[in-house]
Amino acid sequence: MTDERSKDCEVGYGRPPKATRFAPGKSGNPRGRPKGSRSVGAILKGVMSQKVTVSEGGRMRRVSRVELMLLRLVNDAARGDPRATKLALELNDRYGQPTEGGVQSGELSTDDMEILAAYSTQGLDSWTDQGQVRKEAESLDGDGL
Predict the structure, then answer these.
(1) Taking burial as the number of CB atoms within 10 A of a residue's CB, which of 2, 65, 90, 96 is the most buried?
(2) Cα–Cα dist 24/15, whole Å
(3) What's the structural domain count of the chain?
(4) Is 96 left (phi over 0), alpha (psi -120 to 50) or beta?
(5) Torsion of CA 98, 100, 101, 105, to 10 degrees
(6) What pLDDT is attached to residue 100?
(7) H-helix or E-strand containing 59?
(8) pLDDT in tens, 87-133
(9) Is the residue at 27 inside a domain?
(10) Does 143 map to a domain?
């Protein structure tokens, strides 16, 4: 009889004392997460997908906030902002669709390599020192690019 009773009363990992166990149908977290509450990620996704009105070329157009941010990034890159250019190129490499007739990295001309080397290493300041740009382009050619 003591063996059967000791098994029922045994307390340990996963076996709390009977007096402190939750009653059937009762939760250990009675208030819990309120119904309908959303995670931060869900809220952010909703906010980023909201449509805003943009004037583009004299026309009003509705785009998502993510698209608006990408449009501004590309416009800043086109104006010559080196940080925006770098980020836009990285995003294009990561998410852009490869084109059938596009230029492959092995097909870049020497002039293109000079331009890319200038942007990647020193930004717009290296445009003035063409000798330095050529050295960087040659070192990139040697690395298999």
Answers:
(1) 65
(2) 15
(3) 1
(4) beta
(5) 40
(6) 61
(7) strand 59-64
(8) 999 999 888 876 665 555 556 667 777 777 776 665 545 444 444 44
(9) no
(10) yes
